[in-house]
Amino acid sequence: MHQIVFFAFGISLGVILHRYADQDDMFLERTAPSELCGCHGNCPLGDSVADGNSPTPSSPDPDVGREGSSVWCTGNNHTDRMCKFRNLCYAPHFQGGFIFFHGTDTVKQGFPKNRFDPALLDMTSVSDHNTQYFDFADLNSDDVYKFNVSFYHGNSFLFNRFNPENLMHVLHDDLLPLFVTLAQVTLSDSLPFDTNTRLLLMDGWPAGENFELYQVLSDKPVLLKQDLDKYPKGSLVCFRNAFVGLSKSSVWYQYGFSEPQGPLKDTTATATQIRHFTNFIRRRFDLSIGDEESGQYVVLLSRKINRVILNESEVMFALIQEFGLRVVAIGYETHSLKEQIQIISKASILIGVHGSLLTLSMFLPRWAIVIEIFPYAVNPENYTPYKTLTNLPGMNLVYRAWRNLKEENSVTHPDYPPHLGGIHHLPGSQQNEIMASGEVPLHLCCKDPEWLFRIYQDTFVDIPSFISTVEGALSNRNTLRSDQGRDSSHNDPLCPTKVGNLTCQIVNLDNLGNEMKTTNQKFSFNDEEPRSTNRNVGLKLSFEEPWNLPYLEARHIRYEVWIQESGEENYSAWLLPTTEYIFTENIKDNMQYYVWVRCVIDEDVQGPFTVATT
Amino acid sequence: MHQIVFFAFGISLGVILHRYADQDDMFLERTAPSELCGCHGNCPLGDSVADGNSPTPSSPDPDVGREGSSVWCTGNNHTDRMCKFRNLCYAPHFQGGFIFFHGTDTVKQGFPKNRFDPALLDMTSVSDHNTQYFDFADLNSDDVYKFNVSFYHGNSFLFNRFNPENLMHVLHDDLLPLFVTLAQVTLSDSLPFDTNTRLLLMDGWPAGENFELYQVLSDKPVLLKQDLDKYPKGSLVCFRNAFVGLSKSSVWYQYGFSEPQGPLKDTTATATQIRHFTNFIRRRFDLSIGDEESGQYVVLLSRKINRVILNESEVMFALIQEFGLRVVAIGYETHSLKEQIQIISKASILIGVHGSLLTLSMFLPRWAIVIEIFPYAVNPENYTPYKTLTNLPGMNLVYRAWRNLKEENSVTHPDYPPHLGGIHHLPGSQQNEIMASGEVPLHLCCKDPEWLFRIYQDTFVDIPSFISTVEGALSNRNTLRSDQGRDSSHNDPLCPTKVGNLTCQIVNLDNLGNEMKTTNQKFSFNDEEPRSTNRNVGLKLSFEEPWNLPYLEARHIRYEVWIQESGEENYSAWLLPTTEYIFTENIKDNMQYYVWVRCVIDEDVQGPFTVATT
């Protein structure tokens, strides 16, 4: 009945188990996708899709049966891979997945040998989350004729939002990576990327309240998976040019799936990327911020429902009194996201309890201050998404955490539902343990009850201690700002070019070691003395300084010279302050020499080598 | 006067030396670039460039001083790196190189830490040739205002032709890689790539007689380095979006710079790529070839000047007489390249002496035959660019080498110039050695005198032996063609998708090993017997076949099942022929099991795993 192929190795299986175990601890509380449109089985087909909601007529649909699908990928593994597909299709039924049609014109370039090891690529910027893998089904291209095909012409970008209900996730996981990726893979003369790229949110979540932010990145209507799933059984929705795979280069934080949350090691996120992004968002929102520093006011992120600052007006009054600054309280209940961005874009201080709205500190002007408030028993060092953001080199923001150290200033909510920090569902002993603990221990994502219990506390902010934190930040800001000239955020040194016109030749020297201008070459060749002597020849080197050197304002200029005898492996290396020099040590007059020269400025900024030979 | 930093290690220096030694043996005989236009110091500036010869008005020039340059790269080292630049500038004077302006908006993504190690990237598809490295000079973006800036808007692709005078090099090194790269980095709805991409040939060679082939790949006028060098001192020519770095994925041959020439190891060139390319070229040349096999004739590549077939008409007559086929003699002297491509596109046999025109065999229809003629003392196994091309999987061409083994049928030309095989410039002893040798020994590129002497011989083709070679090829062709159904050129198997609805559960078994439908779970739990027994429980597995399975025409379908006890590292693996089964061996009723299932078709084509747990 069955063949037995028993083998026993424990190699990668632990990894697989681990990955699947993650599912038990899912970060996302997934709500059922709401139906955006009631049309089942009788949705509009063909042209309405082909035109992609644009009034201009599109070119005729490609013949996928003849062409097949194609794919071009870059990257070495599923976590850094990005692929461009031609004629990628989506089957709303048949288990709702993508289809790659193999035909005679199929091209697969940069494609891995095993796309199931463990996946072709991630559909989110959150690395290697096994619920977010992209895959497709293989079919022969002839089989396309068995389906009713609708085409999205032009360029599309397909990805999964990781958690569209949370602004930190929206900006950090989705929008910033999307911005960076589109700049990398699409082209535009006037904008950072081609805003005619259609965005498809394939995660299955409903549009959600942050949907308008996604729309900012495209001039075409953003589509949801549900929009494709409206098509009746037997339909295919195909994309002429589809990109999948978000760049992870702007990501700075990991959420604690396999180790406690914290800054992403080896992040390549830069202030430049983030400022580009925030400028782009403001431009697309038609927010003119004028002079970056025109607003001298404090913004208080005011939460009304939970994690409340119980003495909010006292805090506001103290800020006004101490610093003479206007204080503006904003929040979801009173301001649209666009309004919040506009207000924060001119603020000099942003204050809020730990929460996703603090991601908006990326919109602050340079030299603004961020004060993050942590409830009792929560250690600010263990929850640093906003600290990491504001401290990225070049952001030029001043970050301070303020932590409530007084238990009596905290109001707990053990009766809340579990996802809002309630603990009444837990055994009594565990409840008591949590209540007695003075600090939430390190934990993994995403439903640690002690963490939720503590972060959802309300807090009376201790005014003297809080004001002192703000004072410290202000004074630090002023110091940093006056050091602005020495800002080393721009850690990308300008290198000198090659040296010009490098020549090297063996010259005869007089007894003082100076070059003898009239060389008697014949005499030298007939010389009876051993040739290994270096008594009266030298190696004369001369070259021109790098052409861009006058532009670089280098403080210290040296030339590194390597000299090697023909046939030898060893060489001598020298540092010269000049562009002309005669080397005399161990130089032989019948020897060929190879010489390399490069310019080194400011001690360690090297140019490329130029090579010459005698 | 100078600091001494003597150090003696022989590590990478050997490599550096080797690379530079290559220059002595340069493959290219470089002719001085001809001046295409006499305008020095008073060339048209600004709009004429900005419009890129197109009548539509372009957008305003970007402010490079404000924006700076930016770059996005993919790849891991200089031989596989491809970069997209924004605001890359070229300085016709200042040593004529590229400039990258560092500004506040500068983005550098995927950029190596040391771009001089040894270079950022290759400007040709010939790997790591140290005369073909791309580099730029660093300047601060403010410095752009010191230049007169002209802008090329839109998208540009910048590369070096490797040897534009030789058709093998033109097609293999330049056009095919260009075609593949443009398909990878640009987008078009209707064509394989965006033909509005401007091509810039930065090698410095004159246009040359193959220039029209480059123009085929772009709707914009192809530009030479010389066209940029016309601009006066103090000018800059900037590119809004510039790509550099040719894909090497279509390259199949290495020319013998570091080892004797031969097929490129690990080539990823495919027949699909090449057929795409040749179809594209024909379409752009407006060559309709109709039915691929409509022409039943032989094409003889006829050389008139050197490497001559001395009895050409005898060969033609024999072909007509033996095979009843028309014979068409073509060559540079009598046919344009376009005409040659058109004629070859319908030929059933292509015959020619070893030479670059044989690259045109990529235009042959499937099941055509290529006969390559080698002069006396040249071993066909050592010179295989055309054999390698025609034997690429899926090209479906039949290749035969015919070698003149009779010295008396050969006419040598010791009196020719050295680059055409003359040897009179060599010492007499070396001349005699070469004349006496029966086979050219293996050698490196590019000026081996014995190789040149032998390849430039003229040959009387021995008719019986030649006809027998053609007969062998024809008979082989007929066999291969009748096996066409089993063509395995398409080595990209279609994988089954995941199995559907995987469930696994512990079930009670009766004494016959069948599932007991009415399980008394309580009894089982209260059972006093040790739990390790497997007597009366089983692990019941059931799932649905992959949804694409009915489409795949799989000859052999099995399901691979892995079963692991919770907490164990080992697991058992099984192959099932069915989608439902009850495992009984070592199954314990109080144990949790993890189960993985994947479909395997045709013995070794695996789908992805689905996981479930009891």
From the structure above, extract its key features:
homodimer, 614 residues, alpha/beta, Rossmann fold, Immunoglobulin-like, 3 domains, nine-stranded mixed beta sheet, five-stranded parallel beta sheet, 15 helices, 24% strand, globular, disordered N terminus
Outline the low-pLDDT stretches of chain A: 1-57, 519-532
Any idea how many domains of chain A? 3
* End-to-end CA span of chain A: 80 Å
Note the main sheet of chain A: 9 strands, mixed
Largest interface: pair, residues per side: A-B, 90 and 90 residues
Structural class based on helices, strands and sheet pairing of chain A: alpha/beta
Radius of gyration of chain A: 32 Å
In words, what does this structure look like?
Two copies of one chain form a homodimer. With 614 residues, the first copy, chain A, is α/β, with parallel strands linked by helices. The first copy, chain A, has three domains: 65-251, no CATH class; 280-412 and 457-484, 3-Layer(aba) Sandwich (Rossmann fold); 500-613, Immunoglobulins (Immunoglobulin-like). In chain A, 22% of the residues lie in helices and 24% in strands. Chain A is built from 15 helices and 29 strands. In chain A, β3 and β4 form a beta hairpin. At the A-B interface, β1, α1, β4, β5 and β8 of A face β1, α1, β5, β8 and β9 of B. β1 of chain A pairs antiparallel with β25 (572-576) of chain B, so a sheet runs across the interface.
